[in-house]
Amino acid sequence: MASIKVTQTQGNWKIGTIDGIKFNAKVYEEPSEEFGLNKSNVSKLWIDGVCNYDRGWDLRAKTAEGKAMVKAILAYFKNPENCK
Length: 84
Prior knowledge:
This protein is α+β, with helices and mostly antiparallel strands and 84 residues long. The protein is 18% helix and 39% strand.
């Protein structure tokens, strides 16, 4: 299981680390069919050296580890307590 730590919140932006790798995520309380990554409540996601999603993929995760990180972040922010 991935280790996710949010170190900063700036409005809807969550800044932190996943397994020691920096990430930024723009997170909303409600999921978005149109803009959310996999119809989630994450509309933007950057994981350093892994992927970049800005209401569409600029850089997809290519490795199994990277794909697992994306899934872990989406699952983490699916919990409303983690979106505050």
